[in-house]
Amino acid sequence: MTAGMWVRSALTYRASFAMMLLGNLAVTTLDFVIVALMFQHTDHLGGWAMPEVAFLYATSSLAIGIADLLVGSIEGLGRRVRLGTFDTMLVRPAPVLAQMAADRFALRRLGRPLQACAVLVWSLTAVDVHWTWDRVLLVPVMLVCGAVIFAALFVAGAAFQFWAADAAEVQNSFTYGGATMLQYPPTIFARELVTGVVFGVPLAFVNWLPALHVLDRPDPLGLPEAFHFASPLAAALAATVAWLAWRAGVRAYRGTGS
Amino acid sequence: MPPTTPTAPADPDEPAQDGHPPPGLPARHPPAGAGAAWGLYGSVARGSFRRYATYRAATLAGLFTNTVFGFILAYTFAALWQARPGLGGYDTSQAVTYIWVSQGLLVTVAVWGGGFQDDVQTRIRDGDIVVDLYRPVDFQLWWLASDLGRAAFHLLARGIVPLAVGALAFHLRMPVSASTWVAFLLSVALAVVVSFGIRYLVSLAGFWLLDSEGLRTVALLLGMFFSGMLLPIALFPGALGEVARIMPWSAMIQIPGDVFLERRTGGDLAAAFGFQAAWALVLLAAGRAVQGLATRKVVVQGG
């Protein structure tokens, strides 16, 4: 209902809304234009061809796009904490997490998933892959798990704002920074960085690890085969940690009294 | 109420919605002479510098984000230049340096928009702008001074550390000549004025659009792409590259970046300054003209 309210409010200024949706679509298309421009100058990036990088780009972008659409509004938490308007959410008879997710629900965020879908369709037709049933199945699984992992990062990042209300931007390093990193092949990054997003922040499970199986690429870390299929487990773990962090945050929250 | 963060959010489609009223203009009488006027704008700039210096947590968080993005982009650039050494006339260490310099400048020249823009837009929406326009200080110069103060803080706070971290982790191409640092600072100052000119026009469009967020998104898009923030303009193909080179946005990242890398020296350096200064003047003049139109519009409405 809250989400519906924000949608109606956005549609009030139609010209501005159309421009925002188009602008959002264009902003997200922009990073793919950059990838395309890079491939104007080379056939391979880190040993991966353009359709393969496009596959990484699309799966990363679609996963964060869905997560952003569903729970992205939660990053406004710091502002609500500072202004003291978070208190009103606590007394309403609805789950706080759901209220925060629907707060300032922005339909214009459809831009990113729409554009990512287009790139995904193109990359699937362009990659040179022998499609077995497990590869076909892994694509939707990685998209769902990827969205859950990014959603967990949004929630955990927001929970962090209960303690550091001013530091909302740290969250962007992990969400948008992570999504940018996942758009490129793992082979171009330092080993420590890749290891960090496998065992630390579980970003590698969004698309890198399953993509290695789908695209039949060698694993730069030489991890066991099982990791390529472990995204659901990683997503479940990430969601649990985020939920615990959120609960701890809400419990630790004290109104500013303003 | 604790202070709110003034920095533009990294989510490009989510404009900062500060909940506090912007500082606005002082209700003081016109200063006596030109000297006093410059003193006033100097103190505006200093005040703005101090205002942004208050947000320590936000600054640290932004610094962290710039550094993380610096790493990610530096690796992708290193991979691209490994595949094509010397691409665009940059060697690999120059290309990686370009990334770290552009991360340091991102917030300084406000490629995403923001800074005074948030304040002006809030005041237009709330109607407070009517009072501002009739105050005895120059509206445009006031906000320019405030934006220069903000930029100076961001250059110090969010420029030096990412560059130092980048230099530790990668082989960077630092300026050989000491005078390059002076030229770089001058180029950054001109870049901020050009950026101000663009953001000022976008903000004033709020007089006609009621809600200028859409236009702001478009401005952000053009800025990110044509400034050379995401990819040096030398890598743009054909006509797109030609167009990008003469647009005002290239004055914001591409030119200061090339000055830092000492790709612009002697006559080329003078031409670069001339290009930046010309766009700065054109944009400031356009801003003044639009401001005049906006003022008259306010009168017509009886505001």
Q: What key attributes describe this structure?
A:
heterodimer, A: 258 residues, mainly alpha, two-stranded antiparallel sheet, 13 helices, 2 strands, 69% helix, B: 303 residues, 12 helices, 0% strand
Number-wise, the strands of chain B total 0
User: Helix fraction of chain A?
Assistant: 55-70%
What's the SSE pattern of chain B? HHHHHHHHHHHH
Strand-residue fraction of chain A?
A: under 5%
Overall SS class of chain B: mainly alpha
Main β-sheet description of chain A: 2 strands, antiparallel
Poorly predicted spans of chain A: none
Spatial sequence of strands, sheet with the most strands of chain A: 1-2
Protein name (chain B): ABC-2 type transport system permease protein
InterPro entries (chain B): ABC-2_transporter-like (IPR010390)
Pfam family, one (chain B): ABC2_membrane_6
Keywords (chain B): Membrane, Transmembrane, Transmembrane helix
Question: Can you walk through the features of this model?
Answer:
The complex is a heterodimer of chains A (258) and B (303). Chain A is an all-alpha fold. Helices cover 69% and strands 2% of the residues of chain A. Chain A has 13 helices and two strands. Chain A has a two-stranded antiparallel sheet with strand order 1-2. In chain A, helix 3 packs across helix 8 and helix 8 (133-160) packs antiparallel against helix 9. The two termini of chain A are 27 Å apart. The mean pLDDT of chain A is 88. Chain B has helices at 34-53, 56-83, 92-106, 116-126, 129-133, 139-169, 178-204, 206-209, 213-226, 238-246, 254-260, 267-300. Chain B is mainly α. Chain B has one domain. The relative contact order of chain B is 0.13. At the A-B interface, helix 2, strand 1, helix 4, helix 9 and helix 10 of A face helix 2 and helix 9 of B.
